[in-house]
User: Fold these one by one.
Assistant:
Number 1:
Amino acid sequence: MTTISESIPQSNVNGRVSWATVKKVLSYGILFLLALTFIYPFLLAIATSFKTLPEINQNPVSLIPQVVTLEGYQRLLTFNVPRWTLNSALVAVSITLGNLLFASLGGYALARIRFPGSKAVFLGILGTMMIPGIVLLIPMFIVLKALGFVDTYAGLIMPKLITAFSIFLMKQFFESVPRELEEAARIDGASPLQIFFRVVLPTAKPALVALIIFSFQGAWNDFMHPLIVITVNQQLFTLPLGLALLRGGMGQNLQWNSLMAGSMLTTLPMAIVFFVFQRYFIEGISYSGIKG
Amino acid sequence: MTVATGIRGEDRQNAVAGWLFMTPTILIFSVFVIIPIIAAVYFSMTDWNGISPPAEATFIGLDNYKTILTQPGIRQTDFFTALKNTTYFALGVVPMQTIISLLLAVVVNQSLLRFKSFFRTTYYFPSITSSVAISLMFLFFYQKSGLVNQILSTLTFGAWEPIAWMADPRGLIHIALSWFGLTIQTAPDFLTQTSLFGVPLWSWISGPSVALTGIMIMNTWTTIGTMMIIFLAALQDIPNFVYEAAQIDGASAWSQFRRITLPMLRPTMFFVVTLGLIGTYQVFDQIYVMSSGGPAKTTLTIAYLVYRNGFNNSQMGLGAAIAILLFIIIFALTMIQRRITGSEAAV
């Protein structure tokens, strides 16, 4: 492929601009223009978060604030935003830990342990993947209410401690681990639990990293679940929930510097995770995506 | 003899370990997925308001479904308006995100391209950003003096009239028709007087409103990154020698794309379109933050209607019934799509 493409410009020796060059310029042009439409909105949001309200009204598209102010961020403090951030972190970390543990246990059992009923369990989990989340909105509320989990951390965390997606990710991974590893340990008389924790789990690092990323991302950005769990207690708001209700509370008089500041605050942790673990994001999504 | 008991012993150990390992998952799934599904079916046949104890809800059979599907009234009108809006949303977003992400993947996949990982990262970034944050950003950009109008104004050398996107209920098809002089005043009576499921024919053909279009554009913007990565992975699985053989035979770039790339990507296409349909039919967060279903109910989606009925209007039973109808719609669409794409494409 490479050699053939490279040979095309050379074969065009009669001085005309070759198709390959046109294609290249066109490709880069489109890609960079598009990249700009992806980057500019974030830059503008950051800039807006540091502007004063009059300046935002006067010029809502400039990338450089005339006067840099922390007014937008300071106002967030009066709305309990630090507490919401802590809540978001607590919830996201708990959910990630839960998925790590339960999905690797479950995924391993489904991939490697031959136990009666495993097929039925697998199909059951597969079936729940077909159910759109929104369909569960009201019934989830019913169950949470019955359990007394409305307006509690337990309500925010427990239902999300394991997802079908995590189980599949881990099951697929464990199916690719060579069996010889476990066989050797088994001959040495190790129990399934020992084999799992001492032999298999240490090989699963790439899959676990992918799982950490997806679980954390899902939990950190989740809006719908906190919206139905937290009905009155502002102390338990997560960042996206608090932010959405903040917007609602402002009515027509939207304080854009604070809203953009809040948005950037919500985006920042994910951005850090993303740039540190970029490779795993891309690998993870292609991995899980293709296998469907 | 000893071998046999040894195997049986191992079987038992496996059974214990298997179920032990699955216990947390089974427990959580039962309580938070299986039971809720059963509860949803039951409560969709009650008049529960969401406030009184669930046990006090009265069983009313299929009344909620009848109210929505067959009885003219505000509830029927709302449901079919939401169905209309959601369908326009999906009809716009799914093809847009699929085509753009496929083209992007093909361009980014070129072997000689530099900055590959920069492009990949940039396009993917919105996919990992909170939907609430993105919605707030776009709400800001869609103001009358905001970024979107200014860009359009620049591109058209000032010919673009700034609009307040999120406050504009005009349907795109209605706008197009008005250029030919067809408005609600001049439209023939059969369009304005006849109603289907509580919605006048004239409203059925409105197209997505300007407000909904704004959300559609945003939704495309946030999702093409994920779709692109999925296409990229599939593209990398197509062996190079197939293209090399085609090039030796003198196939043009276009015919290579049409004869090799597209057929090889069919299973992935099925997957991406399915993901797109499931996602668009559930659109909720963006509506909640940006428009709350307005203006003039033109951004009211089925998912938002479920929420509004259940949590704002104290009609949990009715909301549950709408949710179940939504499930049936999504399920049917996936099946129809599977038929069209061919079952061998199923992942």
Note: The radius of gyration of chain A is 25 Å.
Number 2:
Amino acid sequence: MGIVVKKKSAFKGLLLPENKITAKKPIEILPVPEKVTIPLQQSIGAPCEFIVNRGDTVKAGQKIADSTSYVSAPIHASISGKVSKTIKVVNPIISTIMDAVIIESDGEDQWVELKKLFDIKKSDDFSGLKKIVDSTDKKKILKKIREAGVVGLGGATFPTHVKLNPPPDKKIDTLILNGCECEPFITSDHRIMLEYGRQVLAGLYIIARTITPENIYIAIEDNKEDAIRCLEELIIKMGFEDIFKLVSLKSRYPMGAEKTLIKTITGRSVPVGGLPMDVGVIVNNVATSKSVYESVIEDRPLVDKVVTVTGAIENPKNLLARLGTTIDYLTGECGEVGSGINYIIIGGPMMGISIVGTDFPVTKGTNCILVKEGRVQVEQNCINCGRCVDICPMKLMPLVYARNVKRGNFEVCREYYIENCIECGSCAYVCPANIPIVGYIKTCKSTIAKNNG
Amino acid sequence: MEKDNILISHAPHIWRGFSTSKIMYIVVAALLFPTAAGIYFFGYYAIYIILTSIITAVLTEFVIKKLRKKKFIMDGSAVITGLLVALILPPRMPLWMVVLGAFFSIAVAKEAFGGLGYNIFNPALAGRAFLSVCFPTEMTTWVLPPHFNYDAVTGATPLSDNFVYQADKLSLYKDLFFGNRGGSLGETSAMLILIGAAVLFIFRIIDWKIPAFYIGTVALGSLLMGKDVLFQVLAGGLMIGAFFMATDYVTSPVTGNGRIIFGVGVGVLTVLIRNFSNMPEGVCFSILIMNAFTPLIDKYVRIKPFGFQKKKKNV
């Protein structure tokens, strides 16, 4: 019985060289590092405040920072040991200085007590699991998700308990599980679907319990045929075939972006400046779904993350790393960095941020560490060819931004809906004049934000 | 890991690598087809014109870049301009005039505006317009392809009032299609221009909208004026103008709808000039006039962004 539906992309999109060299490499558990650096802001929203002191001993999974504001997620110790000091780190992703805590390992990896309600790995009868979920109150589920510090792991790091509790005037009828992973090189979501498929599907079932949608889609790009087959089998085995619809999507960049994905699956367009819930849709990443399962059923907070370490490195791997592990430690596990001039990029080649210091830690939003030889970027004059306009999935005119930001006309960019840009990088990828359009757009957005606030 | 080996840059960190100079040299390659037709029909003197024009164009750009203390990039754009100037000149143009035309194209129409990407008018057409104002006689002295006459014979171009064709219509169309007719060096053979255009389409260099709407408008306009449509489309510089001149990125609009407006505009102007002015051909000036409108079109013809909604009135 085929339960997979095929769909073409609802936008033009790019065909990128995939370079998913780690697709066949099983997730390896990274040894617990000697120390971890845990920044206090790992999600969108208010930064957390310490609830532990210097010199305290903590166990893995123990909450160490929290915030009273609603849009925020608590942070947990990812290893057991002693809180040695607090430092300031520069967050390369949003270029702000934030507080961080360093925990030195005691080498024991002791955990806080976890109440496991169900063992999904051993069991083949899932009716018990469904009963547990069905009998749990929505509020209780959301509370557990919040307490576990679960945020959107696709990169946006929006607190999941907020996302799953939309305002009452927004009727949500569609839930999409995003397993597209359209960026080249990255394979962490791919491996999660293959190795944690049960948790992902169970997590989706829990998410569905909180927002009671009419349609539930699982969206995967067709370059991950094995993941599609694996989840198809599991859906039938777990008895979800009546409620989950598996969709195989044509591989086109940026399919995994929320707006293009919603358009492709439902045909609905998220309005300019709007959110998916404005069109009745909520999108969750597969890694988030896995974390939701772990938080609700296994009582386990978000303390580790599957990270793909790839690119010009001797031994590319998919690693399950504790949050706070430094990038140095991850790349060290994967052998020598290739010779030549290399960038260290957090994220994929299209949207990742290249960083200077490799002592920055893995945070909740990290899904890939890419080592890549430098791209020599000699900017030439724009020749008005219109390739950027043609490729933009948000139907914007990127050349206008580049031109006006250079002249300092930031306001003009707003007339051209610059806030609708998702910074996917398609424009700069196709630009024959090699103009760093995304760089100009980011400058413009941050300048506008500064002027307004 | 050594820190000095780490660089930072903006995302995206990969690039398609389809650079400006690659585009330019593909256009040059596409232009070799009409160039070959010019040499075949008008003899070795055509080679002199072509080489003179290209060398002048590239040298002019080089010298001006040095004078402005800017980096000279051999991106192929000057080669295109030089080649195009040669292709739209009469096949017996004196060489010193060719030098002047190519110089004007690069120095005035391109570099004086700021170089590639900043020019308002198509440089090659501006050069031709300059020459036709300065040397009206030489610019309208046409020869018939000497291959078939041995001695170069002066004769009218098909669009001239005094053009007479003895044989039947079918062989007239055939001559127009293959290029056995009077006219500018590279404009005569519709067939080879179409092959060149096919190259541009295969490499996705140009958008179909401008040539389609340009030629379509001329065909429709000629029909309304009671002219022979096929003749109007094949004769003159319409083919080379539509595929190689009107589609110039820098001087044509960037949006799809803007390109349609541009194509229709050039078409209407061409029909008007051909039918009502004292000039037999109007492709050059039509495109130049619409070039001037390009910034305006780009300003007002925008595309609606993804998820665009009309602003709700505040109640």
Note: Chain A touches chain B through 64 residues (CB under 8 Å).
